[in-house]
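Hi R.,

Here's the chain you asked about this morning:
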Amino acid sequence: MKSYLTHLECTNCGVTHSADQLIRLCTECGKVLYARYDLDTARNEVDRDAISGRPADMWRYFETMPVLDEANIVSLGEGFTPTLDAPRLGEAIGASNLVVKDEGQNPTGTFKSRGLSAAVSKAKELGANGVTIPTAGNAGGALAAYAARAGMQAHVFMPQDALDANKKEIVHAGGTLHLVDGLIGEAGQESRALAAERGMFDLSTLQEPYRAEGKKTMGYEIAEQMGWTFPDAIIYPTGGGTGVVGIWKAIEEMEALGWTDGKRPRFFSVQAEGCQPIVRAFERGDTHAEPWENAHTVAHGMRVPSAIADYLILQVLRESNGGAIAVSDDDMLEHMRLMARTEGIVVGPEGGATAVAARQLIANGTLSSDDNILLLNTGSGLKNLELM
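And the predicted structure, written out as tokens:
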């Protein structure tokens, strides 16, 4: 297989950068970089239908992945998680055509497996001297696992009150755990400082180009699993938002490849009432989300007061004629249990939040009960046993 990677491009100022270097943000404006591919050539050379015969993991889309040499892939079998029909859950919340993309079935139990597989693979290919990451929990566990798989050193920074399961996961996989006073923002400061001090590569969310490339494969899979089309709406629990912008990037790439017909889903970000910077910015019509003060929620993955890709998330929501909605912790927990009782899908509070959002969006007329709706469950509830 051949990757069609050509360069990196700034999502803000458009300046291009070489993809043959360890680089984090645009050196001109400090904004998010995207990996870009020669999609015109790929359109003529890659047979979409041949992909179905490849191994059932995210690397089946190698042509639009950033690793040039397959020998540098660091994999635990991540990706190609199921898209499950959810009729009984749908009946309970008023949706007649409901499916759940269950990312809890990834190797480390969450969608973080995708981003860290891609980022660690590229860091390995480019000769990184170890990796660091700030995390609310699950990304740290994934990094520790993939760094172990790659034989690399990993340092993980997370808030003191992160879940015990995440702390144990990191140490168990040989990562060095640093507990931080504060939230993920403070963890990010310490992660970047250590990376600079020791010559390591920091993998903060969307502050390097490659985690989004792993996350975008959810978009490729949704299309393939639904017959190379998309649902009417995708509801996504949003913290840093890598999955939102990653899936949208995949949709644009697949259109350029001629793999899909141009029908795009409406995107809805769901956040916690105690931490809703994207919701507030969307409702105000802002292009930038001001940091949320005193962020608090049981959904640690959504406890992100400030996202560097806020402008990209808001752009996706508006371009797709979607929206943003905040839900309560109590409702998240109720619907987390509802999903398990009706469908046997064990989700965390972030997954429960998507069901709450679907119920409310149907009730207020934003979505129709007949719409094809996909809930993106980002992780297994088995990492949140204390909430069950």
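The chain has 13 helices and 13 strands.

Let me know if you need anything else.
M.
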